[in-house]
Amino acid sequence: MKHRNSLLCLVVAALSAVAPVHSLVDYANVFIAPQDILNNTYPNTGPANQTIISWAQSSVQGSPWTVMNKPFAPPSGDYHDYESWAPYEWADCSNVHNTTALTPEQVWQQCNYVNRDGQLNPANRVVNNIGDFETLADAVLYNSLAYALTRADDYAQNAASFVNAWFLAPDTKMNPNLNYAQMQGGPSGQVGTHTGVLDLKCMVKIVSAVLLLRETQAPKWTSDIDAGLTAWAQQYVQWLTTADIAKQERAATNNHGSFFYNQLAALQILAGDTDGAKGTIEEYFSGIYMGQIAANGDQPLESARTRPYHYRAYNLAAMITNAKLGQYVGVNAWNKTTSAGATIQAALDYAMTVPPGPSETSYAAELYPNVAAVAAVYGDPAGTYAAFLAKAEGADYVSDACFFWSQPLGDSGFAAQLASATPAASVTGKPTVGTGSPSPSTTAKGSQKQDSAALARRVGGVYGMLVGVCALVAGATLFELL
Q1: According to the UniProt entry, which residue ranges have a biased composition of type Low complexity (predicted)?
Q2: Is there a single domain that holds both residue 2 and residue 126?
């Protein structure tokens, strides 16, 4: 028995030397055309393929997510209305003169609120429709990707059931509006603001997933679900193009405007309005984009914020997504220059030269998917982009999911190393839909999202799990010897 335990510990020690599996990354935004997945024949994407499947399997925890999951209703009284609280608003209850402790709802309704740009108020996630929607979008995307890679029906079934729960099921569907998104709080702040339109920017991920399920003719993606989501999207597009706060967001010249165009164009594509999507992308690149990148590649509107590294990477993700959406509908904007003569590539090149400041080191990884995307489009003949990623992440960049759809991109020799060191991912396992109560991983993900802008990146705990197993075995051996 002692020899078997020792052998097991040796095996565990060997396995623990393998690079840990990535935990799910919530990219700021991404549009993936079906052909980027279905026509991918690059031999160095095996580790990223495995990551996608792993993320699909882990993403179901805490499902299903619905807009109904909140402790109290928005001012309309209808739980089907999406609700969120502005992330940088802080309560000042000196006006209330209360004699007892206030509940979160009372604080929200009665206290005055003040804005502190860049200072995130965790109390504003008491109502967490935004976190649930972001988690939903990731789960739909990765389960659809996993289906395309494996053709295991369970993944497509997951994606379909998640979409149905959030958008279509009578008891849980979301009303197609953001009338109560990013409310500012207080007696006069019980209405939505234009910044709240940003909350649903990740509709782009869901559209990417749906296009892939359509292209692969996934049996679990039924005509009823497809028609229902299309009808919902059409109603929501009507709101996006007519509501006052949506019009204000469309006019925003910084990342808010960029992400608005992400969302609108993607929904138009979903609804089959290709001409509308073309017009939307052309409007962006001939409009607010023209003032977003300076001659040296800086993004002045983002650099002026309290977290410049984060916001440069954030708006880059939106610009890249708009260019990808444009490419899908026949608009080539990759070499479109701003009024200052700069391109998206120039913005990325500049961002790579400015490291995060001491208060922004946790945001460093937000830039990496943009580096991969730019390398795949503009090329990397000198290996500059691959070298940047290798220095920043080591082998991890090759096993990141975005490496799969950001091709061609050099792997710095890491792909072969990972392929020889990492067991093949299971493609036959049947992922199980969660019970509806948030799992620890889901909760951590929601709390680690810095705001609706942030990318939450968490490195997995495979190593820790293996060490724990070995510790248990060692303990059992010690008990045996006593």
Answers
A1: 426-447
A2: no
Q: What is the CATH number of the domain that holds 280?
A: 1.50.10.100
d(CA 134, CA 166): 12
pLDDT of residue 477: 35
Chain-centroid distance of CA 107 in Å reads 30
Q: CA-CA distance, 262 to 198, in Å (whole number)?
A: 10
For 365-422, write each residue's pLDDT tens digit: 999 999 999 999 999 999 999 999 999 999 999 999 999 999 999 999 998 887 776 5
Nearest Cα to Cα of residue 385 among 355, 408, 356, 419: 408
A 10 A CB-CB count for 99 gives: 5
C-alpha span between 318 and 256 (Å, rounded) = 9
Contact indicator for 243, 177 with CB cutoff of 8 Å = yes
Is the pLDDT confidence value at 30 over 90? yes
Statement: residue 458 has pLDDT above 90: no
| pLDDT (mean) for 327-337 | 98
Does pLDDT of 156 surpass 70?
yes
Number of structural domains the chain divides into: 2
Residue 154 lies in domain: 21-460
∠ CA 237-242-243, nearest 5°, is 100
Q: Ramachandran region of residue 41, left (φ > 0), alpha (ψ -120 to 50) or beta?
A: alpha
Taken as a whole, the chain contains a residue count of 482
> 407 to each of 37, 339, 346, 379, 402, how far by Cα in Å?
10, 30, 20, 9, 9
Determine contact, residues 209/270, Cβ cutoff 8 Å: no
Nearest one of 393, 383, 296, 302 to 346, comparing CA atoms: 296
The whole-model pTM stands at 0.84
Tell me how far CA of residue 7 lies from CA of 12, 102, 421, 470, 471, in angstroms. 9, 58, 19, 10, 13
Do 2 and 146 lie in one domain? The reply is: no
Same domain, yes or no, for 476 and 448?
no
Q: Are residues 331 and 400 in the same domain?
A: yes
Q: How far apart are CA 248 and CA 260, in angstroms?
A: 10
Together in a domain, 359 and 392: yes
Contact 167, 177 (CB under 8 A): no
Q: What whole-number distance in Å separates Cα of residue 86 and Cα of residue 43?
A: 45
How far apart CA 467 and CA 112 sit, in angstroms, is 50
CA 127, CA 412: separation in Å to the nearest integer?
44
357 shares its domain with 467 = no
Query: Is the same domain home to 428 and 480?
Result: no
6 and 98 assigned to the same domain:
no
Position 307: which residue type? R
- CA dist., res. 433 & res. 165, Å (int): 12
Estimate the crossing angle of helix 255-270 against helix 244-251, to 10 degrees: 120
Pairing of strands 112-115, 89-92: antiparallel
Query: What is the CB neighbour count within 10 angstroms for residue 7?
Result: 11
